[in-house]
Amino acid sequence: MTEKEKICCDSVEIHEDLLQIVNETMPEETELYDLAELFKVFGDSTRIRILFVLFEAEVCVCDLAQVLNMTQSAISHQLRILKQNKLVKSRREGRSIFYSLADDHVRTIIAQGREHIEE
Description:
Elements: H1 3-7, H2 16-25, H3 29-41, H4 45-56, E1 59-60, H5 61-68, H6 72-84, E2 88-93, E3 96-101, H7 104-117
Antiparallel strand pairs: 1-3, 2-3
Helix pairs in contact: 5-6
């Protein structure tokens, strides 16, 4: 049996009752797009590393660059993406800007992802 045969039905039969439930519960295209874009943000290991640092402390770009052994410019670029996607927030203190997790949802998303890959 080929791979194609394993995933296809033997006959074409439309299950209207199931399709109706799916159609009623399917989110709008814009919401699906936004969700896909959010998950793309988690698709970069540097951004994941930044989030892990922020799990432990509120830090500035200098701290992140030092702990992750990267340039401040590279860190700033990734922080901009994380901030645009509402995963991190910032606050100014004098001449420094400190970054932290936007909320506990970020921690939950990462924890569930880790749980999934460890199954």
